[in-house]
Each structure stands twice: as structure tokens, then as C-alpha cells.
Amino acid sequence: MEQAHIFCQRRSGVLLHVTSLPSGNLGKDAYRFVDFLQQAGVTVWQMLPLGPTHSDGSPYQCLSAHAGNTRLISLEKIRQQPWCQSEELSGGKIAAQIALAYRHFTTYAADDLKNAFAKFCADESYWLDDYVLFREIRQLQHSTAWFDWPAPLRDRQEPALVEIRKQRSESLNIRRFEQFMFFSQWQALKTYANQRGVKLFGDMPIFVAHDSADVWAEPKLFTLDATGEPEKVAGVPPDYFSETGQRWGNPLYHWQTHIDSNFDWWQRRLQTQLKLFDLIRIDHFRGFESCWEIPASCETAIEGQWAKAPGEQLFNALLERFDELPLVAEDLGIITDEVNALREKFAMPGMKILQFAFGGDATNPYLPHQHTTDSVTYTGTHDNNTTLGWYQTLDDGAKHHLHAYVGHSDEGMPWLLNRMALMSVSSLAVLPMQDVLALDGAHRMNVPGTTEDNWRWRFQWDMLPPDCAQVLRDMNALYGRLVAD
């Protein structure tokens, strides 16, 4: 099987989540960032999942696998619309501001725009109707998880849902309008980026959150009991990093039900993501071959076991629906031959992390001489320290290995590792924005296994050196990563 067309040419990318833009939304900073990438000869903008988050802010435990995070909506962009009475949108909570914008929209918008809204609601009804109902009930239930709702709502008894739809019809339409605004602003940004040669690279977690519209709407697709509680949950086994493993708590898929429907749920999920992105990373790819299945009654991952998953059947079904699968497999950690075979069969590049390369011997698979073209090389990811922060914590042996490997270069960190990523044979090389800005560990995005102070980092434009775009462009040219128009 051939790789997706995006990998037919060497490229470079920058990893920056939308929340890390100075404004944290889809407004003018997002467009300015695309302009910076274009000037730098960078043709891929990678980001994290875009879904609405729980209170911890993690984009990997979202309330929906389809919906957009309305906190990313630019109110400034809404104020610029001819139907918006901008003087009334002066600030405050974004939900209240969008509710006011909805009333302007219904009063002043032209018929063609109202028709576009109606078409959006119809086209996206396969997830939108359940999502807005889920969010409305969740608010009425004071943000408690759906499996703790009164049984008629928890179990989706039709009389209870009909009553909510009747009593809360305007609120439900406002929630549909929020999604219309998100997807409209996103598509405008995607068009702007694509016209300038920049591809958008998204992220799709393999599992979905237990407290999500997806699990509430279709519980039969997951390993749940009659009250909505999981019987088995996801995680990873004990390893070098944790004696008890990691118990993530996501419900596992009831794979036979997915097989019986020809993976319809997955087809719908990927359909949404391909509207948003040109390229998608699948987080925890190895779970499509075998996943660590933990009894829900266990507090740690120790008592789990490997359970086979129908990855080959799934990807065959997706190929029947979509022309190609522009996917990247997150294949970090201990990966078996079976997982590699699955990734290679469907021509998905894997990942190489340079921060994992040093301190051992020449057989380390993350060292550049071990890289292959069907891979994406990173200095680090959103889960790593910044490269400067990482280097500052390295022991002397790992530092010596690093400098001996590159020939004792005088180039400082993080640009020494940035250069190493760009010169790799990998078809795509991605640098976190923190490494482009040469920032230390105080600017880290996430520390796995912790819940405090993650996902909050933002850069400011004055952090960007005046010559940064030119330096990146020269390196892209030097290592054959400039893409012809």
C-alpha cells in the first residue's frame, strides 16, 4: 500500500496547539502564525485534539469526539460579521456572548447564511443532535457525569429526552450555533493555511472519555454495565516508568459490535476529523493490535492483560470509505512486531523522538541513523520537556553521547537538536514551538501523570527572534524540506 500523498515530499512542521497562541483562539494570531510558517518554509502545522475539554483542560479527555471546543472561537471574528451588532458584544463569558450573537444572527443574518446554518445542522446531525442534548442535560445536572444522571436521562428514555427537547429548544439551537461558529471559523483558517501551502495536522486519541456524548449516545459500543459503569478500562502495563502501570480509565470498545456494523462509528469519527485536518496522528496506535485491558474494579493497571483488537479489519473498512488514510501512528514505547506489521501494512509513518535517543548505545531506534523515510521525527512532543529543559537535566553520560554523536558541534541547544530533526531521513520533521523559540522547561506544555498546571502554556510574539523565520527557511532549504508551490 502506498503512503498518503502528503508524504511524497520532504516537509517540516511546527507543533503548537491553538490554545498556545497568544490569544488562545482562532482569531488574528492564528492567521499570523500561518504567515510565519509560510515565511519559514514550514508546510505543516501540528496541534492537539480540538474537542471540548473537561475541567482539567486535557484535550485527550474530551466531552465529544466530534465537537469543537467553543473556547477557541474568536469573538473578534464574530463582531466583524455584518449581522452582528458588535457594540453589544463587549466581553464576558464566551457562552453568553455567543448566545447574544445567536440572537443577532437569527434577526439580521441574510437568508443564504441562515440556510448555511440549517445545512450545517443537517449535515452534522449524525453527532450534533446527541452532543447538544448531552451538553444541555449536563448543564441542567450541574456538570455531573452522565452515568450519575437520573435513570431516565442516563438511559436515554425517549419521553425524558422529548421533554428536554421541547423545554430547551432555544438553548439547544444556541449550542448548534456555537458549533456552526467553530466549524465556520476553522474552515476559514484551514482554507487560508492550505492556500499558503500549510497543511493542518491533527490528533485523534484512540479512546474516548467515559463522560462524553459519544459513550452516552451509543453505550452498546463500549464495555459498560447496565448502569453505564465500565466493566473494563484502558491503560498500559507496569514498565520502567511505573511499577503499577497507568490506569487511564477510558472504557474499552466492544469490538464485536463495531465489527457487526462494519465500523460505522469509526467511519463517522474519521469523517469529522478529515473535515478538520489534512493529516491525523492516532494516539496510542498499538491499541489497535492489542490493548491493555484492566478490570474496572482494579485501582492500578497491574492486574490487566493484553486483549487483541481488530485493527486490520478496521483499517480495511476505513479504506473502503475513504480514498486514502493520511494517518500517523503514535508508536512510542514497547512496540511488538505485530504492531509494526499493522502500521506498515497500511503505510502509516511512525514517530521518532530525539530526546529518547541518547544515553544508550548505537542500537537505540530513536538515533537518526536508525530512522526510516516512513516516519516523523520530533525533537520532543507535547508530553516531553522542552529540548533546552531536557538538555539541562541530562546526566553527563547522555550529554557526552549526544555531543560525540554529532561530532562535538559548537551549536547550542535546542538548535543542535532542531537541526538533527530536520536533517533526518524521515519524510516529516516536526519541532515544538518552544524549541523554535529556544525556551526552557518552564514553558513545558504537559507533564504526564500530573493534573496541575498542564495545557496552559502560551507564547507571545515578542518571544520570536526577528530572524527566526529566515533561519528556519534556510535550514528547510539545506535539508530538502522546502515544498515547491
List the helices and strands and how they pair.
Layout: E1 11-15, H1 28-40, E2 44-46, H2 75-79, H3 94-108, H4 111-123, H5 125-140, H6 151-154, H7 158-167, H8 169-195, E3 199-205, H9 213-217, E4 232-236, E5 246-251, H10 255-260, H11 264-276, E6 279-283, E7 290-295, E8 305-308, H12 311-321, E9 327-329, H13 337-345, E10 350-353, E11 375-378, H14 387-393, H15 396-405, H16 415-423, E12 428-432, H17 433-436, H18 468-478
Parallel strand pairs: 1-2, 1-12, 2-3, 3-6, 6-9, 10-11, 11-12
Antiparallel strand pairs: 4-5, 4-7, 7-8
Helix pairs in contact: 1-18, 3-8, 4-5, 5-8
Strand-residue proportion: 5-15%
Determine the fraction of residues in helical runs and give it as a percent range. Answer: 25-40%
Note the total helix count: 18
Instruction: Write down how many β-strands occur, each being a DSSP E stretch of 2 or more residues.
Output: 12
Radius of gyration: 23 Å
Q: What distance lies between the first and last C-alpha atoms, to the nearest angstrom?
A: 27 Å
Structural class determined from secondary elements: alpha/beta
List low-confidence stretches: none
Major beta sheet, strand line-up = 9-6-3-2-1-12-11-10
What characteristics describe this protein?
485 residues; 12 strands
Description:
The chain is 39% helix and 12% strand. It has helices at residues 28-40, 75-79, 94-108, 111-123, 125-140, 151-154, 158-167, 169-195, 213-217, 255-260, 264-276, 311-321, 337-345, 387-393, 396-405, 415-423, 433-436, 468-478, and strands at 11-15, 44-46, 199-205, 232-236, 246-251, 279-283, 290-295, 305-308, 327-329, 350-353, 375-378, 428-432. β1, α1 (28-40) and β2 (44-46) form a beta-alpha-beta unit. The longest helix is centred in the middle third of the chain and has 27 residues, at 169-195. The chain starts with 10 loop residues before the first strand and ends in a 7-residue tail after the last helix.
